Amino acid sequence: MVRYRAAELAPWSEQLDGAHAPWLPGYRVNIIDGHCIEASDRRLKPLREVQGGALPGTSLVVYEPAYGLVRDVFPCEDGHAQERSLFGEVLRTVRAGDRWIAERNFCTREFLGSVDTRGAVFIIRQHEGLPVEMLHAFCSVGRMETGHVAEQPVQVRAAQGSPHLFRRIRVKLDQATRDGDRVLYILSTLPLHKASAKRIARLYRTRWTLETAFQHLEAYFHSEINTLAYPKAAWFGCCLALVAYNMVAVVMAALRSVHGAETIDQELSRYYVANDLAQTYHGMMIALPEDEWRLFSRMRPVEMVATRRELAQKVCLKAYRKSPRGPKKPRPKRGGIPKASHVSTAKILRDRQVNAATP
Description:
37% of the residues lie in helices and 20% in strands. The chain is α+β, with helices and mostly antiparallel strands. α1 (2-15) runs parallel beside α6. The longest helix has 29 residues, at 231-259. It starts with a helix and ends with a helix.
């Protein structure tokens, strides 16, 4: 459902001329990261006996920043499943010309080698457990905003034993990360004439765009309904929120084409837009008969684009402007009783069925 709707909506953003400027011309950029649905309420009888939070599942989400769309999702009902167990499904969607950006959990020989073999490129932080063969020493390339950058060529052997040549970028940070790291190592297959080492380091930082999308999904589109305890129900609700998020992304593209990208991206509040749609939709469906909506299904693509731009011109942006706030104060660390570990709802339900079937 998410994949189908995203494939339909991406051309609309492009025809509206409301897509973001390409981060790297000639490549389709995909940011991938893991996403776990928040623990649900213990509404199911088997869950009332456990102490930890019940996880309905985990997933891998693919975000395409050029259009602001969640292009794909790979859900798993087992909340304890490792993200790497879903890599096989992701690799089947990799195409030549794609560019993948990911954090170090995706830095495995299988994933790197498979992406490279399929003609795609990647920017992935190196996992300390990945064996690499250094072909030359680091060569300094100067400073960037966050620290000093150096580069070296390395070789990594895939799971099947075939060698792959990668670029290895080292960033010595001026300030440590949240995890306390002062040095980052980034692997990439981007050719030098396409992107310098500094450019690759800057592009890697953009992976947080997907984290922002996760925050919007939870806050504005209620993607995590904690009363949905069954994994299939929880994921269906989450995927519906992803579809709604993508549809709002097309609305934002129409607004960018009329009012300018800087105005919409910097000043318009997605919260106010989503809230207004949710409040207006129910009454609109009552006031307008079903036949009134068939007009749009008969429109040609050119007519639809013109209609959306016309409607975007009539939007009063003042009603949807962001309310800026000051910087957040860091929360003091609190001690106390440690929380119980999370449990997988799918495993508990499966074990209950097995026990019930055992004579």
